[in-house]
């Protein structure tokens, strides 16, 4: 997808929302698990976890996480 086709963030009206994917507990891909605004001052996000929808959870830098052993 091109950035131009990404939905506009309705929270800040400046950034766009980009989709993020993850892996489920069994290792299968979970596409579009979260949408996050690319405007760093906005921080709007929407996430799906176990069928529940979460809005504006705190965002932490990815380098703070330690990799899980597989």
Give a concise summary:
The chain is mainly β and 70 residues long. It is 0% helix and 36% strand.
For the structure shown, list the relevant keywords.
36% strand, 0% helix, single chain, 70 residues, mainly beta
Task: Give an overview in words.
This protein starts with 16 loop residues before the first strand and ends in a 15-residue tail after the last strand. The model has no long low-confidence stretch (mean pLDDT 84). The chain is built from no helices and four strands. The chain has strands at residues 17-23, 29-37, 45-49, 52-55. The chain has one domain (3-58). It is globular, with a radius of gyration of 13 Å. A four-stranded antiparallel β-sheet has the order 1-2-3-4, with no helix packed on it. The protein is mainly β.
Q: What is the subunit arrangement here? A: single chain
Number of helices in the DSSP assignment: 0
Low-confidence stretches: none
**Largest sheet: spatial strand order:** 1-2-3-4
Helix-strand makeup class: mainly beta
- Assign an overall shape: globular
Number of domains: 1
Quantity of strands, as a count? 4
Percent of residues in helices comes to under 10%
Largest sheet: 4 strands, antiparallel
What letter string, H or E per element, gives the SSE order? Answer: EEEE
Span of the ends, CA to CA: 31 Å
Strand content bin: 35-45%
Radius of gyration: 13 Å
Q: Overall mean pLDDT score?
A: 84
